[in-house]
Fold this protein.
Amino acid sequence: MPTRRPARTKSRALSREDSREAIVAAATRLFAEHGLESVTFGQIAKAAKVSRPLVYFHFSDQRTLFLECVYLAMKELRDRFVRQIDPKDSGLDQLETMGRIYFGLHSDAPAQFQILAVYEAQPPDSSAARELYERVEALHGEVNELKASFVIRGMRDGSIRSDIGDPHVVGTCLWAFSHGLCQLLAVKGEHLCQCFGLDIPKTIETGFALLRRALAGKRD
C-alpha cells in the first residue's frame, strides 16, 4: 500500500504567518532589553525558535524589524487610549486616565513599553524603511495631538487652569513626568523600598495627585 504524503503547502504557509508574529514578539523583548544595536538576527531567530533565513524572509534588515516592533507597540498604546478614555470626562480626568493607561502598559506589556522608550532615545532616522518610519511617526503625532486636545478641553471646561500654557508643551511635560516616574520605579523601585520604605502604589498615587493640583482649574 503506497504511503500517503502529508499536504505541506498550507501548513508551511500557516507556519510562516505564525513565525512572523513569533519573530516580532521575540525581537520586541530583545530590543527592549538590550537596545537596537546590540541585537542580531541570529539572537532573534533563536529566541523566536525559527531559522535565521526565515527572519530575513519576513524582514530585510534590523531597522525594518525594529520599526515594526515600535509600530505595533505604539498602535497598542494608541488603541488603549481610544478604548478606555471616556469622551464625556473633563479634560483633567482624561489626562489622568491617559497617564494611568501609560502606567498600565508598563505593567501589562513591559517589553512594548520599553521598546517605545528605546525608540524615543534613538535619533530620528527615516533613511531605512521610510514608509514604516512615517507610519510610526504618524501614530506618535496622533498620540501627541490627543494629549494636547485633553489639555485644551480642560482649559475650556474649567478643569485645567486657563493660564497653564501651550497645550503641546504641557502634554510633552506630562508625558516626561509619567515616563520618568514609571522608569524610576521600574529600575529603582525595589532599592527605594528597601532603603527608604517607599510604597510604590502610594508613590504613583502621589504623583497623580501632584499633577492634578498643578493643573487644576477653578472647576476641579
